[in-house]
Design goal:
With 232 residues, the protein is mainly α. The chain has seven helices and three strands, in the order ααβββααααα. The chain has one domain. The longest helix has 40 residues. The protein starts with 8 loop residues before the first helix and ends with a helix.
């Protein structure tokens, strides 16, 4: 087995471009958040206040809001029913803070209404979290030792990672759509500039999930090419 680009074309033609796209997507999020964190919302609400008010408006009860350390560490914890906001979002008055906070509310609403793709993603999450760590090592062990069961297990686990990434896309885009709709309906976005700013932040964040799918799919294609070349 040759471990260079010539012996691993999938690395050069699939994985490296996908990783470059992922870096671009992350940079775009950072730029959008940094830019619109300097644009203060005319609603005069912090991210934490917006979460509490939107949850109440949507009739979603029993969900708490907490401040969590880190940058861009915002997430909805469905197990504990907590919207965890980074300090900049929890305490921020910017349109970026409102957009990120409302996005997490979107996930809480999805759970409350039993949104199908979210239910499926949550069901896949435990197995995929385990498989994403082992897929590539198991595959390459199977490749090195010419043991098809291990190689096929790696491929199967990576297929699960791809499936999870596919299911995640509608979940994230739907949460962003709900966020924008709730912010507009509640009167939190009072100018067209604010609407465009929130849409830009949410679109940039969504692109990172497209990039995650691209990376997973690229890795799967690479593994399939290597498996085929070994068997030929």
């Amino acid at each position: 087995m040759c471990w260079h680009y010539g012996g691993d074309p999938g690395l050069l033609f699939f994985v490296l471009p996908a990783l470059a796209f992922s870096l671009y997507a992350r940079a775009r999020v950072s730029v959008a958040v940094r830019r619109y964190s300097r644009v203060m919302s005319s609603a005069g609400r912090t991210g934490a206040q917006v979460v509490a008010e939107l949850l109440r408006r949507a009739g979603v009860l029993g969900v708490r809001v907490s401040r969590t350390p880190g940058k861009l560490s915002d997430r909805y914890d469905p197990r504990r029913r907590v919207v965890r906001l980074s300090p900049a979002v929890h305490d921020g008055f910017s349109v970026a803070a409102l957009g990120v906070a409302a996005h997490e509310v979107g996930h809480a609403i999805q759970r409350a209404v039993g949104y199908g793709p979210l239910v499926l993603r949550n069901g896949l999450a435990p197995a995929v979290g385990f498989g994403s760590q082992l897929a590539v090592p198991l595959f390459f062990l199977g490749l090195v030792f010419s043991w098809d069961p291990l190689l096929n297990l790696g491929l199967l686990l990576m297929l699960g990672v791809v499936a999870f990434a596919v299911v995640t896309l509608p979940v994230e885009y739907d949460a962003s759509g709900r966020a924008l709709a709730e912010l507009e309906a509640g009167g939190y976005l009072r100018t067209e500039e604010e609407v465009r700013a929130v849409r830009a932040v949410l679109s940039a964040a969504a692109l990172t999930y497209v990039a995650a799918l691209a990376v997973a799919l690229a890795q799967l294609l690479r593994m399939l090419l290597l498996a085929r070349s070994r068997r030929d």
